[in-house]
Amino acid sequence: MLLSSSQGDRKGCAVLSYPRRGMHGEVVEDLGRRILGGDPDAGGTLDPTALARHYGVSHTVMREAMKTLAAKGLVDARPKRGTFVRPRAEWSMLDPDVLRWRFTQRGDEGMLRDLAEVRAVVEPAGARLAAKRRTDEDLEVLETALARMADTVSDPVTHTEADIAFHRALLAAARNEVLDCLQVVIAAALYARDRLVHAGGERTGFAATHRAVLDAVRRADPDAAESAMRDLLAQAGKDEAAI
Question: Where is the HTH gntR-type domain positioned along the sequence (predicted)?
């Protein structure tokens, strides 16, 4: 899985993680996906006892699963009302699991649009800062990710992993802890679009736009790095429109 529940936990960017394996993990995964898919709708009730029977787990496992979902803002429990799905506006939309579950729902074009807009705000600024603050080690990581992208064009999953690694490394090179915390959002956006865009192989201009960003960062040219990233995002928008 490209977006694990622990990937956002960097430099104090704490997110709630949970064991993906085992009955607890399976229950959280399935219930999380169902809630994001509207089953039940916001305000709808959940019966933990019935759910425990449905999943064939103990009440302890179900209670812990509900605690995990509650920490992600998806459910709550109140006296006399029981356990219910919280309003969508109260969901932790930047939680990596919530992002990932949302992307399993087909036709969520609004989320792709929202994340594309966030990328347009964050990544050009990140590229500018990276050009000013990058180290030789940062350049090596970026070069490795770019080379891996070139070598995995025929493998959409691995290609996507390499693409995500490149953009994460770029934000890390900006040396801004708050900006770096947004890597989970960028990774979610890339995971969502790449699995669609790269299903048919590499898109025209993909390698060139990434190379232009890296070259500008290597030259320590902030203006060129920001401009190259804007060109990259513009190309990404064209690729999405062509799907």
Answer: 21-88
Q: What is the 3-state secondary structure (H, E, C) of 107-137?
A: CCHHHHHHHHHHHHHHHHHHHHHHHHHCCHH
pTM, two decimals, is 0.75
The Cα 232–Cα 122 span in angstroms is 13
In a domain, 64, yes or no: yes
Greatest alpha-carbon pair distance for the chain in Å reads 64
177 and 205, same domain (yes or no): yes
Q: Hunting for tokens 């209670």 — which residue is that?
A: 63
Structure tokens at 49: 């006892």
CATH number, domain of 71, equals 1.10.10.10
Has residue 146 been placed in a domain? yes
29-85 pLDDT per residue, tens: 999 999 998 999 999 999 999 999 999 999 999 999 999 999 999 999 999 899 999
Name the nearest CA neighbour of 227 among 213, 240, 208: 213
- Tokens 């025929």 -> residue: 154
